[in-house]
Specification:
about 110 residues, 4-stranded antiparallel sheet, about 35% strand, alpha+beta, single chain, Alpha-Beta Plaits
Length: about 110
């Protein structure tokens, strides 16, 4: 019972600490092949563990997005790095991003 209560407290605390704002994310892959999207996510974690990734399914496509960037220039810096690993193209796109108040300076996570 205590563990369940602590889990509830943790969920509320983390939910309240997350804020959302307009920003940029990188579209790493857009495919209709699930395995290809999962492999790309694994590759992203392997080479860029500091970037938070988001795998979305919008029928019939799987979209892998990465990062939470406030500034476009920061996203473009990572875009150049990721392009070496994903030759089909990495694109900067406008999105609603997660911003942690205690990590305002480093929002790429």
């Amino acid at each position: 019972m205590l563990i369940r209560k602590q889990a509830e407290i943790n969920e509320v605390t983390t939910r309240e600490s997350r804020k959302f704002a307009r920003g940029f994310r990188l579209l790493v892959i857009n495919t209709n092949k699930r395995d290809e999207a999962i492999n790309a996510k694994a590759k992203l974690y392997q080479y860029f563990p500091e970037l938070k990734s988001y795998l979305l399914y919008q029928s019939p496509y799987y979209k892998l997005k990465a990062g939470n960037f406030r500034e476009r220039k920061d996203a473009e810096t990572y875009q150049k790095k990721l392009s070496a690993f994903f030759p089909r193209g990495v694109f900067v796109m406008n999105d609603i991003i997660e911003v942690r108040p205690d990590k305002e300076q480093d929002v790429s996570q």
